[in-house]
Amino acid sequence: MRACVPLIVAMLCGLAWADLYSEPSSCRGRCYKPVDKHRPCHCDARCQEFGNCCEDFEMLCGHEGFSHSSDAITKDELRSISEKIYKADINKAQKADIVLNSQNCISPSETRDQVDHCPQRLFTYVNEKLFSKPTYAAFINLLNNYQRATGHREHFSAQQLAEQDVFLREIMKTAVMKELYGFLHYHNRYSSEQEFVNDLKNMWFGLYSRRNGERDSSGFEHVFSGEVKKGKVTGFHNWIRFYLQEKEGLLDYYSYIYDGPWDSYPDVLAMQFNWDGYYKEVGSSFIGSSPEFEFALYSLCFIARPGKVCPLSLAGYPLAIQTYTWNKSTYGNGEKYIATAYVVSSTQ
């Protein structure tokens, strides 16, 4: 597969050192934590903008996302672990499992026109035997547990809450998530698998408010299921959700602006569509990936590069994922919820 146009999204140590910079004037253990007004300097994501970073901010926090230099994750390490996760995804679709009909490619300047350039569906065929696999089945059970309109409080039944736990339990059985946990454990981010799972549940399923002060959203709902805010589709970055909604006649595929370089799955497609009366101007999604694969890469990037572009590599091709944190509320020890995550660039 190839790109019809380039897709570019502009985005905005030793003991002596520890002795020299000690709390409270150090960033040791404080990288990217919320501002504490009682401290003389800060280590949050915007301290450089305001000129109030601690002197050791660049050294300890320069690699982003981790609390001290021995935990820092480099770009090369991100590319290496993403390749390992890619190879571990044995549940991904095979070439014969999906037949795409991408049809007409448009230019980025045309994405606001809301014109349907594709008379046929995007998915000509999907082997639905994929959906009987435990992680797929658990994932699909979650998709209809949400109200897509923001501003309406989400309520979950006991069964729906249990479905969140089932999904996490199933994906943690996979080689993909074991690879990710081992990597993060090695970098001292989590001391146990249970701590990791608890954090995943909070960051992805914890509710926060996008509108009207209601607890109306979560990272999972936004990224995978999709939402409607102020008359527009937001989030909705999942191929399984797309296929199921298209099959039900609730989604009309309009066009695409980017088709990734991979000749097997997972691939990446950036597209335009109408979701039951609401338009998505540009929605990038992996195609043919397993639920655990997407969950792993988005989680990796949110943990290692929160609110920033995260450089990865899949089958030798560069890929970047952008995550955003939800700054209006936190859980646990000041940790932020995931607001969104999606593919922002990929080039040959």
UniProtKB/TrEMBL annotation:
Domain EndoU: 74-347
Record has DNA-binding as a keyword: no
Main location per the UniProt record: secreted
Lineage top rank: taxon: Eukaryota
Signal sequence, start to end: 1-18
GO CC terms: extracellular region
UniProt KW keywords: Disulfide bond, Endonuclease, Hydrolase, Lyase, Manganese, Metal-binding, Nuclease, Repeat, RNA-binding, Secreted, Signal
Subcellular location: Secreted
EC number annotated for this UniProt entry: 4.6.1.-
Molecular function via GO: hydrolase activity; lyase activity; metal ion binding; polysaccharide binding; RNA binding; RNA endonuclease activity; scavenger receptor activity
Domain SMB: 23-65
Cofactor(s) listed: Mn(2+)
Family: Belongs to the ENDOU family.
Quaternary assembly: Monomer.
Protein name: Uridylate-specific endoribonuclease
Gene: ENDOU
